[in-house]
Fold:
Amino acid sequence: MTLVDSEAARLGETSGRASLKDVLGAYVGLTKPRVIELLLLTTVPVMFAAQRGVPPLGLVVATVVGGTLSAGSANALNCVYDRDIDEHMRRTRRRALPRHVVSPRAALVFGLALVVVSTVVLGTLVNWLSAWLALAASAFYLFGYTMLLKRRTAQNVVWGGLAGCFPALIGWTAVTDRLAWAPVVLFAVVFLWTPPHTWALAMRYREDYARVDVPMLPVIRSARDVARQIVAYAWVMVAVSLLYWPVAHTGPVYPVVAGVLGAAFLVEAHLMLARAGASDDLTVVRPMRLFHWSNMYLSLLFVAVALEPLVPLAR
Structure:
């Protein structure tokens, strides 16, 4: 509770136990749990692939705990740096810092503490290669994306998205303590998936980003232009996802699943392009359809990565 600022303390005096719950929830919120869920979804399945079966439970738990703390640290520090614009965006104004439930100093200490703890957990309970990869991902997200790219270029999510690709590498190195081409291919899949996924969401909130002068692609380009780029990335992403088949020497199950999922993603991307060609009105374009489908695509693709070595037909 030493991290609770004076504002939170005053809330505690007036609302008792409920305010304590609110403050604790605010600290959890700083870590962006929904983002972490997606990152873990690209970590654990790769551990199954690296093990060619079920990895040791203790190793999985240590990797998940360390990875959660590492991603949480980067997200918390991102909230500290972006608190000025978060106050003015509908999507983020209910976060802890805009609501003044947690002070910037407290959030900074919290984020830095998570950096140290996550590195120690991964280094001592998993291996130091995984720990350094997680630390590199967090550092790139904070310094590369948040501080350097986000407010300066429309390519922010393209290169900034590299940080979100590291869990595929971390899951592999957690089991093998070395890198290989198979996780690099999955790294590339996530890299190519990130722009369509993020641009679809940014389309929905383009007025928010415009209000705070963040040059997301949907702010500076028409919906049709954004949809064209989404289609281009989608085609390359699907092609790279199929490359995992020969590189990882999988059986027939993975390429079938990847092909079906990829075809569905491409259909949805082309449908959005058709809608964007007819109108720039977001009620017509419906970018959140692609956003939600992109979540399902990545989730099911990595489930296939995990199940492939467990299915007799896949061997």
Remarks:
- Residues 223-248 form the longest helix (26 residues).
